Amino acid sequence: MSDNLARHFLLREDVTFLNHGSFGACPRPVFETYQAFQLELEREPVEFLGRRLTENMAVPRRALAAELGTSADNIVGLTNATTGLNIVAQSLDLKPGDQILTTDHEYSALEKTWAYVCRKTGAEVVVVTIPLPLVEEAQFTDAIIAGMTDKTRVLFLSHITSPTALVFPIERAVAEARRRGIWSVIDGAHTPGHIRLDLDALGADFYSGNCHKWMMAPKGSAFLHARPEVQGLLDPLVISHGWTADSKLPGAKGAFGNSPFIDEIEMQGTRDPSPWLTVPAAIKFRQENDWWAIADHCRALAQDTARRLGERTGLAPLSAPQFCAPQMVAMPIPDCDAPAIHTTLFERYGIEIPVFKWQDRCIARLSVQGYNSKPQMDRLIDALSELLNLKAPEAA
Do 70 and 200 touch, CB atoms closer than 8 A? Predict the structure, then answer.
């Protein structure tokens, strides 16, 4: 599988790249489309940015909406999920005593975002500990619902967690938040292209995801989704030509004829929109290569690698397989100098993989994409075994 697919990617041949989850990797055909947009922009910047941008920006919205189960009117294009989540966090009307309910598995940049918001508003973050190993949906949902109080204004959850590579079963928690009048804000940075999404069915108030990771679009392509009923709550981080003074009035239009949600947030001054415009090409590449079937192969390889390493470490996985991200798994390793192991894996073995300490666990977070192979997994296990003094299990 991987030999044929690897030719589509631009990754260095001297590096075993097992870290697709951090920034993704863009296939060659998609990258060429990206460069074509950039060249078109440079050949006539005023035509591209001044006369055609509004029309061009709508094309990815329509393609992505069809892929994610929503309307194009509910999506805006951004550079990354962190930006989308900052727009939400800094727009919501919070005050002293209000609580943001979240978990102990969140991405550090967003932990800082909510800390900043709390410093400005007087609200506070309440962190729920999710029991591990995660083996059933009720473990997660019961812990979240138990943390809800009459002071909870925001429920902030990762759909797929960054440090622990878990798929949180967020559906019942989101529904309960809606029932209680709590805003639900979902960090979907790792989700588009990784698991199938139906945003309207999920019903979260706000959902931001990256297209540059598992959807394999260029870096700088992401989206913010908001239900129509809550779009009026949002303010842009940057005030530019899309803003209008009457944007909060019922039925108001943005400066370019779309809703204020789209025009105010998408227009943030001059920027290169080429990554966002390339999203339809990324979706087409995935469809033409039956990428969901490839993802199934990747999941099997990831789970097999985690199982094999677990036999050497004797450490239990963080979850049952159904709660592990399909193409990404956080593999516990023995206590060690994680930054040193990370550096040595790259410098001595040419293996690019995150190794870090999360809470009291050392973790090697493996990503498996279509360009990866079993020999690469063997190389990783052999390298970790050598560095951590792990022994192969004895044959039965």
Answer: yes
- Nearest CA among 198, 71, 163 for reference residue 363: 163
Selection from 308, 321, 322 nearest residue 382 by Cα: 308
- Let me know the angle formed at the C-alpha of 279 by 275 and 284, rounded to the nearest 5 degrees: 140
Helix segments in the chain, DSSP class H: 2-6, 20-23, 28-43, 45, 53-68, 81-91, 108-121, 137-147, 171-180, 199-202, 260-266, 274-277, 279-288, 291-313, 338-349, 374-388
Strands 206-210 and 222-226: antiparallel
Look up the CATH superfamily of 2-28+290-388: Aspartate Aminotransferase, domain 1 (3.90.1150.10)
Range 144-179 burial, b when 16+ CB lie within 10 A, else e: bbebbeeebbbbbbbbbbbbbbbbbbbeebbebbbe
Half-sphere exposure of 291 (CA within 13 A, CB side): 24
DSSP 206: E
Q: Using one digit for the tens of pLDDT, what is the confidence trace for 26-40?
A: 999 999 999 999 999
Rounded distance between C-alpha atoms, residue 20 and residue 35, angstroms: 21
Architecture of domain 29-285: 3-Layer(aba) Sandwich (3.40)
Task: Return the pLDDT at 3.
Answer: 54
Percent pLDDT > 70 in the chain is 98
pLDDT in tens, 321-350: 999 999 999 999 999 999 999 999 999 999
